[in-house]
């Protein structure tokens, strides 16, 4: 994973921290750039200037997108998919409390997938570009949420048709289509699932040069998520998901008979 930063125009900036409930919600933009032929650095810089996100998540980002730092500064992390020229990327105008982690996901026949996970302290964020197989992408999603804190959001290109069916998470992002298959069939592939958070506002932005439209969400802690009992229950649910995923992995490695 590549992590880089450029100083801001006005000197050092304080570490990035998600807002408390009394402050404005945390604004996240997610965009599948469409490698090579889609959005380039200039397009991403223009999106940042227009939306001013607290966090920008990108899918199908090539190495060239890293030149974003020369254009607008900030902090950037790139996680290429194994054997591919593109991968996941995150950008922020201010430093992260800790660098994003990269976890390996269950793989398909052709493309090996990863996910970026960023712990902001108040909540976690996962950047995803899931496989097209409708059973595989849900397995990948279960693997991701098992690594997240009780209060978390998962954003990106899900490639999921229909509900994701992940216990404890709500689909809080925009409901409008974000992708047109062969310019004909509109699909809502870019989503935001959240647990322990509320979405104060959301939107789908104009497509630009990519085949996906960016999505925007404004997230903040849910009022009842501060209750210790609720967070303890969420933590227990995360542990159960992790154990179930480990049992399924052992069963696949050691079939009966």
SSE layout and pairing:
Elements: E1 2-6, E2 26-32, H1 41-51, E3 55-62, H2 68-72, E4 74-80, E5 86-92, E6 101-104, E7 114-119, E8 124-129, H3 136-145, E9 152-157, E10 170-171, E11 179-181, E12 185-187, E13 190-195, E14 197-204, E15 215-221, H4 228-253
Parallel strand pairs: 2-3, 8-9
Antiparallel strand pairs: 1-4, 2-15, 3-5, 4-5, 6-7, 7-8, 9-13, 10-13, 11-12, 14-15
Kindly give the count of domains: 1
Overall residue-averaged pLDDT value: 87
The CATH homologous superfamily name equals: Endonuclease/exonuclease/phosphatase
- Tell me about the largest β-sheet: 7 strands, mixed
- Poorly predicted parts: none
What is the quaternary state of this protein?
single chain
CATH architecture: 4-Layer Sandwich
Instruction: Give the strand tally.
Output: 15
Shape by Cα distribution: globular
The proportion of residues forming helix, as a percent range, comes to 10-25%
Strand order, sheet with most strands: 1-4-5-3-2-15-14
Number of helical elements:
4
The CATH class name reads Alpha Beta
β-strand amount: 25-35%
Topology pattern, helix = H, strand = E: EEHEHEEEEEHEEEEEEEH
Structural commentary:
The chain is α+β, with helices and mostly antiparallel strands. The protein has one domain: Endonuclease/exonuclease/phosphatase (Deoxyribonuclease I, Chain A). Helices cover 20% and strands 33% of the residues. The chain has helices at 41-51, 68-72, 136-145, 228-253; strands spanning 2-6, 26-32, 55-62, 74-80, 86-92, 101-104, 114-119, 124-129, 152-157, 170-171, 179-181, 185-187, 190-195, 197-204, 215-221. The strands form three sheets. The protein has a seven-stranded mixed beta sheet. A six-stranded mixed beta sheet has the order 6-7-8-9-13-10, with no helix packed on it. A hairpin with a 5-residue loop joins strand 4 (74-80) and strand 5 (86-92). The chain starts with a strand and ends with a helix. The mean pLDDT is 87.
């Amino acid at each position: 994973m590549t992590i880089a930063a450029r100083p801001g125009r006005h000197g050092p900036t304080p570490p990035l921290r998600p807002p408390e409930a009394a402050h404005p919600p945390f604004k996240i933009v997610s965009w599948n750039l469409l490698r090579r032929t889609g959005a380039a650095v200039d397009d991403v810089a223009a999106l940042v200037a227009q939306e001013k996100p607290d966090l920008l998540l990108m899918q199908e980002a090539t190495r060239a997108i890293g030149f974003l730092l020369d254009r607008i500064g900030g902090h950037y992390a790139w996680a290429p998919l194994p054997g591919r020229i593109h991968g996941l990327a995150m950008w922020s105008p201010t430093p992260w409390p800790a660098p994003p982690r990269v976890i390996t996901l269950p793989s398909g026949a052709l493309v090996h997938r990863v996910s970026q996970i960023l712990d902001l302290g108040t909540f976690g964020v996962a950047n995803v570009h899931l496989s097209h197989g409708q059973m595989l992408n849900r397995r990948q999603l279960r693997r991701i949420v098992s690594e997240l804190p009780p209060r978390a959001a998962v954003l990106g290109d899900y490639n999921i048709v229909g509900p994701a069916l992940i216990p404890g998470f709500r689909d809080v992002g925009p409901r409008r289509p974000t992708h047109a298959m062969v310019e004909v069939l509109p699909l809502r592939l870019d989503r935001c699932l959240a647990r322990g958070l509320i979405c104060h506002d959301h939107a789908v932005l104009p497509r630009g040069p990519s085949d996906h439209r960016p999505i925007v969400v404004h997230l903040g802690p849910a009022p009842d998520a501060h209750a210790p009992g609720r967070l303890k229950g969420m933590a227990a649910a995360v542990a159960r998901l992790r154990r179930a995923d480990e049992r399924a992995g052992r069963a696949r490695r050691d079939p009966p008979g």
